[in-house]
Amino acid sequence: MASVPSLASSLHQRIADALSAALPEAGAADPLLRRSDRADFQANGMLALAKKLKGNPRELAAKVVEAMQISASGAEPAGELIKDVEVSGPGFLNITITDEAIVKTLAARAADDRLGVPFAEAPGTTVIDYAQPNVAKEMHVGHLRNSVIGDAVVRILEFSGEKVVRRHHIGDWGTQFGMLIQFLIEHPHELDHEGEVSGEEAMSSLNRLYKASRTLFDSDEEFKARARRRVVDLQAGDEETLALWQRFVDESKIYFYSVFDKLDVEIRDEDIVGESGYNDMLAETCRLLEESGVAVRSNGALCVFFDDVKGPDGKPSPLIVQKSDGGFGYAATDLSAIRDRVGNLKADTLLYVVDARQSLHFKMVFETARRAGWLTEDVKAVQLGFGTVLGKDGKPFKTREGETVRLVDLLDEAIDRATAVVREKAQDLTEEQIAERGAQVGIGAVKYADLSTSVSRDYKFDLDQMVSLNGDTSVYLQYAFARIQSILRKAGEARPVAHPELALAPAERALGMHLDQFGENLAEVTASYEPHKLAGYLYQLASLYTTFYAECPVLKADTPQQVENRLFLCDLTARTLRQGMSLLGIRTPEQL
């Protein structure tokens, strides 16, 4: 597997070589190469260079153009890459690439399993914290984005060659477990069931038990006292109490996994390290912070203060690591997790896919960890703070009764809507296939709506729009992929073959130039953790393919070579769509 230099990088190198040859006194000058509407590319570097050399930019540009016509450093003649160079305005170079270079570069991409996309030059280890449900509680719409965004970022980073360690910091500790465990001790068969249970059944049992124990806790002072003593037993590591706590965790996992399975997000047991996983480190974390002077006692609580963080009253608002009653806050757990992830997991990067409303908390946690020396200059910590899922009315998504929407209900409705769309368009699909495709299209629609929005922005959850066949939706991309598969099936004896000797129609050129940018797009997305830029690239690819399909007959092209070349463009478009959608965690059915 070899990475394939893009047309832009080949051209950049050619101009840089020409600059060195024509203007050796310029040193290593940047040609400032950009995509252009006037030609394929424009190089804008002559202006800055003319200022530096105190020369005329058009005259300098003419010298560089002359040098570009000569074979640079034994490379192929300029004519194989560059069709035309025009000097315009104050020394801009408008450059058109040859059709031959486009097809040859695409052929090299097609010959590689990774479509010519290189691995990162210096991959490291990223620990990513995402998909954080709470034990014994239902997952709601607020759990959608961290799961979908986290899963896509994991896939993108792993494709780049990064070692990725997943961490699901589930809420599996706290005072409510005293209430639940004590109730189970006094009603020992409440979680009993024979054989396997579904996720819905597991959640139903947990819901029933939670409501019953909460009612008793609120109405019976003696039960409340017993429940509070049980919290102490839990924190002290009492074996019986821990065994019952584990039952709640296990029952909740049955439910979690059923929801993640429906969402088509893989969650593995070994990646779940909840709040409880850091219990043994909390006291030491506090001791180290206090001994180093990073944290100080204030009214009995262990706090870290910041000059730039003030409360509503204008007074300093600290990060509370340990409460005055000796209990540990979220900060103690998060700081212990950083110690573990950097010290034991050897992370270079810590990524947190967490609601943007937690940004002040994480800003203070990261700064505290830096002061304590746990986050060094070699380790970066990033919160991918995501926006809120809104209803069509632009307000946070709620049911008509004002309740938070259950995630599983949302996914089921998306699947139902998508199945209706698939059934309406279906040709030669069985009911079983329609149901399978409906799930893939529905879940893909939900994920794409999320991932095509910048992570930090809110977005409206509008199922009518999400499952539309038109516009910027995953359904549009999936149908483009399925259409190509249909053409390839109908091609009979004709096979996809690249023909660099053929002239390209405008729609073929536009599609080819965009296909060539896949690797560059992925490099940008990987560096910035912005999946919406990949979604945007894929939507543009599907749109350019739609134009190509309308303007360039494939199976009825003029010559057998043209049929093969257009089949080649179809095939590479499909492979790029499938790879890109896979990195977003979205399926591409072969037939719709």
From TrEMBL:
Domain DALR anticodon binding: start-end pairs: 477-592
Keyword terms: Aminoacyl-tRNA synthetase, ATP-binding, Cytoplasm, Ligase, Nucleotide-binding, Protein biosynthesis
Family indicated by similarity: Belongs to the class-I aminoacyl-tRNA synthetase family.
Quaternary structure and interacting proteins, as annotated: Monomer.
A GO term for molecular function: ligase activity
Region forming the signal peptide: none
Residue ranges of the motif 'HIGH' region: 133-143
Coiled coil: none
Species this protein is from: Streptomyces hiroshimensis
Catalytic activity: tRNA(Arg) + L-arginine + ATP = L-arginyl-tRNA(Arg) + AMP + diphosphate
Residue intervals of the Arginyl tRNA synthetase N-terminal domain: 9-97
Compartmental location: Cytoplasm
Pfam families reported for this sequence: Arg_tRNA_synt_N, DALR_1, tRNA-synt_1d
EC number: 6.1.1.19
PANTHER family: ARGININE--TRNA LIGASE, CYTOPLASMIC (PTHR11956:SF5), ARGINYL-TRNA SYNTHETASE (PTHR11956)
Gene name of the encoded protein: argS
Name this protein carries in UniProt: Arginine--tRNA ligase
